[in-house]
Design brief:
With 510 residues, the chain is mainly α. The protein has helices at 12-23, 26-46, 52-67, 70-73, 82-94, 107-143, 163-188, 207-213, 223-228, 231-257, 285-308, 316-345, 350-359, 364-375, 379-395, 405-416, 428-431, 433-438, 448-492; strands at 148-153, 156-162, 190-191, 218-219, 265-266, 273-274, 282-283, 347-348. The protein has 3 domains: 12-108 and 481-492, no CATH class; 111-204 and 216-356 and 445-474, Up-down Bundle (Fumarase C, Chain A, domain 2), CATH 1.20.200.10; 364-431. It has 19 helices and 8 strands. Strands 1-2 form a two-stranded antiparallel ribbon. A two-stranded parallel sheet has the order 3-4. Strands 5-8 form a two-stranded antiparallel sheet. The radius of gyration is 31 Å and the shape is elongated.
């Protein structure tokens, strides 16, 4: 039976269903592959495994590859997957000297290193986005510590609160996600290089050196585990998904609250999109995108778990992770930056929030507790009296602030056969939503001074996290720049002493 072969000799269906799928991820890993190859050659040269002249020529083509955009490099699924394409290109350029690149290392190892370089950059980007959201939410919460609203559960008015207190219910979860992302970054920033196939290698190879060259914190201890571990990748995507799911909850609330029926908030015009048919409509497009992106991430996380459920030492789990993990983290970063922008540009209609608060019965819980204490009855009885009173008041077109002691006594007579003795009592302080919020002085409560203190705490935590992320980014960039300087010096001076361990003073290596 004849096989329809591609130019590289592979069947067309394998090219389409296999290599093309992997090649689609090549742009995501291109920079990391170049750095991984360069560090590998520098390390082998340091160990006197590669002749100096061959190392210089190989580093020269690797540096040229690093300067070449992925789309211009020549990744071609007809040739094979990404690393086979690289082998072909380097062999065409320098002949047999390109073969030194394989000494002591599988292609799998190179791509594993590249993936970690890519993912740590994606995690830094996501951290910066989450920190920006946390700062924006903290600042807005402080501004609205006295913007009163009826907080809701089940989308039903619950108790008096403030918009600032509501916002911090998203600031704290995002800070926890920042902590988890930093833990994920710690996991990612460990080097699998020097693992050999599964059990290490017989060639002299300094695993700690290559880790330092690439800016990794340390090596992954167990060589087989180093090649096949996926738990941290799953955790990174899971944390990213959890972050965006938290923001999706906020987006759904704001979408409801931006409707004319509520008119609590209005998105900045740049975060909305007009209807092409109905001139009066501006749709909360940004919020819809965040909600949809959360759904996409949930699907990707589920798919990643599915492909990782394999016997050990199988390629299929990580082959698909090469694209899914960076794309998921990038999508999470885009969603998080979008929500940070939404919060930074939102207009809050404090008057509408206050009007809705005063029109309802959110003070009912405080009234029941007042009745319990004042009349020395159990809470369930007080609850029943207040519930009956609220129904009576609503039937008469009254609001919570309009409830009187006479109404409470009338309800008590029906339920208990005797009044509570509250007729004529001044209940305004008990029923005033602002006064009620002012009593919420417990730790984490909604009193304005408590909210402002929490907002300061959240802002300080976000600023501290951002400073730590900036240091991590600077460290990665410095290590990569130092590696390129070292490689450039070795490529230009084949007879020079190995740079790693005997590097020039300005190399940045330690």
């Amino acid at each position: 039976m004849a096989v329809n072969a591609a130019p590289g000799g592979y069947p067309a269906e394998l090219v389409e269903g296999g290599f093309a799928v992997e090649i689609a991820d090549a742009p995501l890993l291109h920079a990391g592959l170049n750095l991984a190859d360069i560090a590998h050659v520098v390390t082998l040269r340091e160990q006197d495994v590669i002749p100096q002249a061959a190392a210089a020529r190989l580093l020269g083509v690797l540096l040229e590859a690093h300067r070449t955009p992925a789309e211009d490099f020549g990744y071609d699924p007809a040739i094979g997957e990404s690393y086979t394409c690289r082998e072909r290109r380097f062999g065409e350029l320098i002949g047999p000297d390109a073969g030194w690149l394989h000494a002591g290392r599988t292609r799998r190892e190179a791509v594993r290193v590249a993936l970690r370089i890519r993912v740590r950059a994606d995690l830094v980007n996501l951290l910066e986005a989450a920190e920006a959201f946390a700062r924006a939410a903290s600042r807005l919460a402080a501004v609205h510590a006295e913007t009163y609203l009826a907080d809701q559960t089940y989308l039903q008015p619950a108790q008096p609160s403030t918009f600032g207190h509501y916002l911090l219910a998203f600031g704290y979860p995002v800070q926890r996600e920042i902590d988890r992302l930093n833990t994920d970054l710690d996991w990612v920033n460990r080097s699998p290089a020097g693992s050999g196939c599964v059990n290490g290698g017989r060639l002299p190879y300094d695993r700690s050196l290559v880790a330092r060259l690439l800016g990794f914190d340390d090596v992954i201890e167990h060589t087989r585990d180093a090649m096949w571990q996926t738990d941290g990748l799953l955790s990174s995507v899971s944390t990213a998904t959890s972050l965006v799911t938290t923001l999706s909850k906020l987006a759904e609330d704001l979408e409801i609250w931006s409707s004319p029926e509520f008119d609590y908030v209005e998105l900045a015009e740049g975060h909305t999109r007009s209807s092409v048919m109905m001139p009066q409509k501006r749709n909360p497009y940004a919020l819809s995108m965040v909600r949809g992106e959360a759904g996409v991430l949930i699907g990707r996380l589920t798919g990643l778990y599915a492909v990782c459920k394999t016997p050990s030492a199988r390629s299929d789990n990580l082959i698909f992770a090469y694209g899914e993990v960076p794309r998921s983290l990038a999508l999470a970063g885009a969603a998080t930056r979008l929500m940070a922008g939404v919060i930074g540009g939102i207009r809050v209609n404090a008057a509408a929030m206050r009007a809705a608060l005063e029109s309802g019965f959110t003070q009912a819980t405080d009234l029941a507790e007042f009745v319990m204490q004042e009349c020395a009855i159990d809470y369930r009885t007080a609850y029943d009296v207040v519930r009956a009173t609220v129904r009576d008041a609503a039937a008469q077109g009254l609001r919570g602030v309009d409830i009187t002691g006479d109404l409470l006594d009338a309800a008590a007579v029906r339920l208990r056969g005797e009044p509570l003795g509250l007729s004529g009592r001044d209940l305004r302080q008990v029923l005033d939503p602002v006064a009620i919020v002012g009593t919420r002085l417990t730790r984490g409560g909604a009193a304005p001074e408590v909210v402002r203190a929490m907002a300061r705490e959240c802002l300080a935590a976000a600023d501290a996290a951002a400073a730590g992320t900036a240091r991590r980014r600077a460290g990665f960039e410095a290590a990569e720049a130092a590696l390129l300087r070292t490689a450039t010096a070795l490529a230009g001076s084949p007879g020079a002493q190995p740079a790693a361990g005997r590097q020039p003073a300005d190399s940045g290596l330690s």
